[in-house]
User: Which sequence fits this backbone?
């Protein structure tokens, strides 16, 4: 049997589910561009409408593949966005503040979760999503923590919640920060430090001014750059905790994080063509939207609505804590 024949035999069962997920992702991208709404939210909701195709039938294997392998590949390709020279513009004080905010936000999740009878997985998932980069961080963290019967449902809920809150923040935060008397540079830093998803950070930042948009984008990229650090810390803790915390031996660096770090190193060492960076970034986003669509197909609306108000309360608390801490740090310490 030739390599091509083996490849066809391996890929044929996956094709229907992958094509379904990709088609839903394309429809979500069209709707998002047409209506100016979050693409990932559209992908999630459209995917859930096709949940019946995941139960039994030819799409199941491909949907599983898209929700796992394509998800990890999309996260790995995110590294193309990060260049160390850009991150250096934050400065030591700004970097220290952002690292502290990330740690405190994740810690808030662990403090809030027991109050609403939620487990550590949900605390880590939501805390990481709010602290780092929204939906992308939620997907990456879900890929390394031990899965249980609630993991996919909680991941989808987290994506939906942080995307919705980011959209609200994109409108409200610039007005709030201006009302508090922050300068344009400070507003840009706060927007980048507190809004969850990259697209909404860019939208909010440039709605203030070009200089605010630039500092907001750089600040957000610093938070994205912390994603592999947080993932490695999670993996180390799970390895130390032993078999009871995980499912088998967890690699110190999953392959998609190796890809992430390799792209960061490549982009920081060589000046890559802008067109290439844009194409890889677009491909990464396409993979993540496809993975979200696949996760939506795997999840029923009934299962998602059964999570209860405690789930939303935790995400809102984490979001408000991040907002208050970041605003207070700039207001009283004048770091930026």
Assistant:
């Amino acid at each position: 049997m030739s390599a091509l024949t083996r490849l066809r035999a391996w890929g044929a069962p996956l094709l229907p589910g992958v094509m379904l997920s990709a088609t839903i992702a394309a429809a979500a991208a069209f709707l998002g561009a047409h209506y100016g709404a979050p693409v990932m939210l559209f992908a999630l909701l459209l995917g859930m409408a096709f949940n019946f195709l995941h139960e039994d039938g030819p799409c199941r294997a491909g949907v599983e593949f898209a929700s796992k392998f394509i998800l990890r590949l999309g996260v790995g390709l995110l590294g193309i966005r990060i260049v160390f020279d850009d991150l250096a513009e934050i400065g030591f004080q700004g970097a220290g503040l952002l690292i502290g905010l990330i740690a405190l936000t994740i810690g808030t999740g662990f403090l809030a979760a027991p109050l609403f009878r939620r487990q550590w997985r949900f605390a880590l998932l939501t805390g990481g999503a709010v602290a780092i980069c929204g939906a992308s961080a939620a997907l990456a963290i879900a890929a390394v923590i031990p899965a249980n019967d609630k993991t996919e449902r909680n991941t989808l809920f987290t994506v939906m919640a942080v995307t919705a809150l980011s959209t609200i923040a994109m409108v409200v935060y610039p007005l709030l920060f201006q009302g508090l008397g922050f300068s344009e540079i400070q507003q840009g830093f706060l927007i980048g430090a507190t809004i969850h998803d990259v697209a909404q950070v860019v939208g909010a930042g440039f709605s203030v001014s070009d200089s605010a948009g630039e500092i907001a984008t750089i600040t957000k990229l610093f938070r994205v750059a912390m994603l592999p650090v947080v993932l490695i810390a999670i993996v180390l803790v799970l390895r130390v905790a032993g078999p009871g915390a995980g499912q088998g031996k967890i690699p110190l660096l999953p392959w998609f994080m190796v890809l992430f770090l390799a792209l960061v190193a490549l982009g920081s060492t060589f000046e890559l063509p802008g067109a290439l960076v844009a194409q890889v970034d677009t491909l990464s986003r396409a993979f993540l939207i496809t993975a979200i669509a696949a996760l939506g197909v795997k999840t029923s609306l009934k299962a998602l609505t059964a999570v209860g108000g405690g789930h939303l309360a935790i995400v809102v608390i984490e979001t408000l804590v991040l907002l208050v801490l970041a605003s207070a740090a700039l207001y009283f310490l004048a770091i930026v």
